[in-house]
Amino acid sequence: MKKLINSPDTVVTDALAGVAAAHPSLAVDIENKVITRAGGPQAGKVGLISGGGSGHEPLHGGFVGHGMLDAACPGEVFTSPVPDQMLAATKAVNGGAGVLHIVKNYTGDILNFQMAAELAEDEGINVVAVVTNDDVAVLDSLYTAGRRGVGATVFVEKIAGALAEEGAGLDKVAAVAREVNDRSRSFGVALTSCTVPAAGKPTFDLADNEVELGIGIHGEPGRTRGPLAPARDLAAAALDAIGADLPLSGDLLVMVNGMGGTPLLELYVVFNEVQRYLAGRGGRVARSLVGNYITSLEMQGFSVTVCQLTDELTRLWDAPVDTPALRWGR
Amino acid sequence: MKKLINSPDTVVTDALAGVAAAHPSLAVDIENKVITRAGGPQAGKVGLISGGGSGHEPLHGGFVGHGMLDAACPGEVFTSPVPDQMLAATKAVNGGAGVLHIVKNYTGDILNFQMAAELAEDEGINVVAVVTNDDVAVLDSLYTAGRRGVGATVFVEKIAGALAEEGAGLDKVAAVAREVNDRSRSFGVALTSCTVPAAGKPTFDLADNEVELGIGIHGEPGRTRGPLAPARDLAAAALDAIGADLPLSGDLLVMVNGMGGTPLLELYVVFNEVQRYLAGRGGRVARSLVGNYITSLEMQGFSVTVCQLTDELTRLWDAPVDTPALRWGR
Amino acid sequence: MHADVFRAWITAAAAIIEEQRDHLTQLDAAIGDADHGINLARGFTAVLSALDTAAPATPGAVLTLTGATLISKVGGASGPLYGMAFRRAGKALGDTADVDLPALAAALEAALAGVQQLGAAREGDKTMVDALAPATGAFSKAIAEGASADGALAALVEAAQAGAVATISMQALKGRASYLGPRSVGHEDPGAASTALILGALRDAALASP
Amino acid sequence: MHADVFRAWITAAAAIIEEQRDHLTQLDAAIGDADHGINLARGFTAVLSALDTAAPATPGAVLTLTGATLISKVGGASGPLYGMAFRRAGKALGDTADVDLPALAAALEAALAGVQQLGAAREGDKTMVDALAPATGAFSKAIAEGASADGALAALVEAAQAGAVATISMQALKGRASYLGPRSVGHEDPGAASTALILGALRDAALASP
Ligand SMILES: Nc1ncnc2c1ncn2[C@@H]1O[C@H](COP(=O)(O)OP(=O)(O)O)[C@@H](O)[C@H]1O
Ligand SMILES: Nc1ncnc2c1ncn2[C@@H]1O[C@H](COP(=O)(O)OP(=O)(O)O)[C@@H](O)[C@H]1O
Ligand SMILES: [Mg+2]
Ligand SMILES: [Mg+2]
Ligand SMILES: [Mg+2]
Ligand SMILES: [Mg+2]
User: Fold this and answer.
1) From ligand 1's centre to the CA of D124, what distance in Å?
2) A&C contacts, CB < 8 Å
């Protein structure tokens, strides 16, 4: 295992110390593993928190700041955080208007956030949880834990964060968060596996000529394995899967996301194929992101997330944001 | 070779088409491989262009925009662009106040930019070239082609771009560019090699327990090979080399740059060690960047770049910038 | 059985989890995300120091603290689930100082109920429930039939181990493994495997007690 | 020798470069950045189509167009250097329609001068100069001593090949390989190797001419 770490046990806290040093706009409680805005809670503003396993950076800590999250709680690598962290974050950002929990749909995240919400309610804090579940690689049926929450989480955090910044109430903020999730779908493709530091070996093996179609962000296997193919075909495979579940016409917000080990050069190649595919089906890329936003350690691969925009969602997407990983308008 | 491409021959132009689709603020001449601001040349403003081999994204195209570059010309992967591209870019950004060529110190880049400058002068355009050479891994002596230009190029493009945006003349802009380069030093460490698409196999081999100390951004071997070590030791090795050539005290602008395949989580671990090392020597990280800014395809590793700030350089660093890869203040 | 037996149980459980850490993680790598052994090892290490510091006096307090610590330290799916299991078991024991077999059986039934209430998994879903449910059932049945402590504890562990092995042929319907659909068949569920280890530690601790 | 001989030279050079593409790239991988073969193959492919389209009438025009195209298409260090070499050679030939051996020798001397003026490399720096300089020297000397075309061209190629091989033991003082310092010793310089190939193609084309 080749990694830039001091030890698998300290990788998350060492990285948090680095985040604290790099971003004066953030307050980092390294011991409790909670990242908040330096300013502290804003009276009357709905607080937004999210959290999940580490190894997906910049998600979620990189999205804490004006116009997006108020706090993030990173767990161990690929392991959801614990209720204590979520409770501490919830208390830290509560400005009296309630707190939104943005939860990716994984059993661990669901259960821990559920416990945290109960504890917060006990302390008189009004909490609403919104679960993201945009990964079409998983069939949403009685036979699974449900679709995974992946790329749409970035869109939800940005757009709900913008509405909260405008002073909207908890119900409205939760509603737009759900709307964004409902209008978004994702699909991921892995070229290589990744190694959890504490595990020391790759989570799975892929042959040199194989790709995993429908990969999860923790290296969970996807729908099928296929042969390594040109970017055009891999992009089409992802969009075929998304299009089977979401109309791809009209104004779209599109993210071509890198899994962490893929060069930006290649992500632009994929984005070009994505926009050509969509254009061919009457879809217009009105807004886009190309880069590493929700990663899986050093995994090579990409995911595509498509969101059907409305004028209101576009307005909120364009609103000023000032976080380490997403910044415009100020 | 596992890459998200259609073919090695089209990777650069396919990526440029993706850049064009993703960034309406840029104008991309795919055939001539020139990226400019959509606005066209600004009368009376010094034009800044840079260029180099592809595979280092976001450098240089990701730094085209308000407050930074006016144009970038990407060559083939790891191969400097040709004079035709540089001439086209120079003409495209000439607003009558002359054009600054920001050239990384590699024989190929130097020779091609030299020819382009001569051609531009023939067309009556005033061109000044500034060469960056901040890589302390190479001894700057009669026995080498001189230190390589690496991370300082990002600082030069940002700070000279800010001064040009304020309306300063070509000589002043060139002077601040040289000043930033003179006050900056870098050192890179590779954990893995990378594969040039057209070559199809890794440029060099590293054993599982080996790292290359002093790696260049094209996979040029460095000073020595060493054993894989904790992030703390690798950061110290980089800073020892930099410190031997540049006093590390006072206000510093520090970049911990990823080589392309290294997770952000690990870059923050390295940044934490870097700031601790500097603090121990009276250096204060006044400004910083942590992420992928000047990469080597999918190589795993990092580089550290340190620049001694002055109040004026800090002011110019903080000035608004609006590019795909660096954005703040607007 | 007094508090020391329950402390011995948790200590033995922590030891076997640490020993089987990589095995459990590899099971999770096959159908999950390669962290189950790491998660539980981290959790039980924290539990041991919590028990040292607080030194709870009753069996119930030992298990309640164990559950609370697992919830606070493990994360993932298994943290809340095992945490809930131990807390419910602890609460079921109340503050009795000396736990007999029927009380222990009732505590394990409460643990199972807690896991199923939180995780909504049924038997056959390829989860820890497939080890815990048959184990508690066999244990209660043996006690009802008047089996000795040895016999009842043997039945508990055999059923847990058989249940864990039985998950190999199941298709996962809950948790991360369910994403695999039919591809989850042929692999043992890591949580079921860890449950069998933890119940094995219970038997060893109980039999070792005077 | 008329224009057709020079076109035949460039055609043969393009063919051998294409054939040796991966070998040249591997030489560059060892002490550079693994693109020399790729760069030259891309350049000579462009040169062939440029010669087809423009169909230059004189030997000088063939070489000048070759140089200009290499400058426009290759990039890297070798693009401007080989481009300059061919342009200077072409200019040296002027518009003579039939080039004799002394004129060819003068053209090669001009090419060498162009490369050294642009790249400032001296013999022994482990660059293409270490193949080109001895080759032009040997060629001129043979002609001065009244050697036949065969003999002079043989001397040209032998000296180029020997010069390329001699770079193996040199430490690079110019170009990317110089970053390696002493570690550059033991590897053949890719540009010296490609120069030997290109001059070999010249001999073949010249000998094949009636
Ligand atoms: N809904 C559920 N009910 C009961 N047990 C579950 C459920 N979901 C997952 N599990 C158990 O949790 C185990 C995985 O635990 P772990 O790997 O630590 O958490 P995560 O899946 O979050 O990484 C599975 O092997 C399974 O036994
Ligand atoms: N200053 C120089 N003078 C002469 N030849 C040079 C010089 N620098 C480099 N070369 C030649 O260029 C070759 C490398 O060419 P190439 O790999 O195509 O360019 P790059 O080094 O930019 O990748 C070297 O092998 C060497 O022969
Ligand atoms: Mg997990
Ligand atoms: Mg090159
Ligand atoms: Mg797991
Ligand atoms: Mg090269």
Assistant:
1) 67
2) 111
Given CB atoms, is B267 within the 8 Å cutoff of chain A? yes
Q: Do A265 and B297 touch (CB under 8 A)?
A: yes
Q: Write out residues 133-192 of B within 8 Å (CB-CB) of A.
A: 191-192
Average pLDDT, chain D: 96
Site to substitute for ligand 1 among A107, A109, A110, A143, most atoms within 8 A of C-beta: A107
The residue among C1, C13, C2 whose CA lies nearest residue C195 is: C13
Other CB atoms closer than 10 Å to residue A95's CB: what's the count?
A: 16
CB A52 within 8 A of CB A104: yes
Q: What is the mean pLDDT of residues D118-128?
A: 97
Catalytically active residues of A are 56, 218
The neighbour count for residue C26, using CB atoms within 10 Å, is 16
Give the DSSP letter string of A120-165.
HHHTT--EEEEEE--BTTS--STTSS-PPP-THHHHHHHHHHHHHH
Contact A270, A303 (CB under 8 A): no
In chain A, the residue whose alpha carbon lies closest to the alpha carbon of C22 is A199
Q: Which of D38, D78, D187 to mutate to test the pocket of ligand 2 (most atoms within 8 A of CB)?
A: D78
Mean pLDDT in order along chain C per 10 residues (210 residues): 97 98 94 93 97 97 97 95 97 96 98 96 98 98 96 98 98 92 94 98 92
Helix H or strand E encompassing B311: helix B311-318
Compare all CA atoms of chain A with the CA of C21 and give the residue at the minimum distance. A199
Going by alpha carbons, the residue nearest to atom 3 of ligand 1 is C119
How far is it, in rounded angstroms, from Cα A229 to Cα A211? 8
Ligand 1 center–CA A278 separation, angstroms: 38
Whole-model pTM: value is: 0.94
Residue of D5, D84, D101, D83 lying closest to D39 (CA atoms): D83
Alpha helices in B69-190 (DSSP H): 83-93, 107-122, 152-165, 170-182
Per-residue pLDDT tens digits of chain B, which is 330 residues long: 999 999 999 999 999 999 999 999 999 999 999 999 999 899 999 999 999 999 999 999 999 999 999 999 999 999 999 999 999 999 999 999 999 999 999 999 999 999 999 999 989 999 999 999 999 998 877 778 899 999 999 999 999 999 999 999 999 999 999 999 999 999 999 999 999 999 899 988 999 999 999 999 998 877 889 999 999 999 999 999 999 999 999 999 999 999 999 999 999 999 999 999 999 999 999 999 999 999 999 999 999 999 999 999 999 999 999 999 999 999
Q: Which ligand is nearest to the CA of D192?
A: 2
Q: Do the Cβ atoms of A194 and A298 come closer than 8 Å?
A: yes
Cβ–ligand 2 contact at D164 (below 6 Å): no
Between vectors from CA B121 to CA B119 and to CA B125, what angle results, nearest 5°? 115
Q: What are phi and psi of A28, to 5 degrees?
A: -120, 120
Distance between B223 CA and the closest CA of chain A, angstroms? 19
Q: Is any ligand 1 atom within 6 A of the Cβ of residue C78?
A: yes
Residue B164, sorted as left (phi over 0), alpha (psi -120 to 50) or beta, turns out to be alpha
Tokens 């990823």 locate to: B258
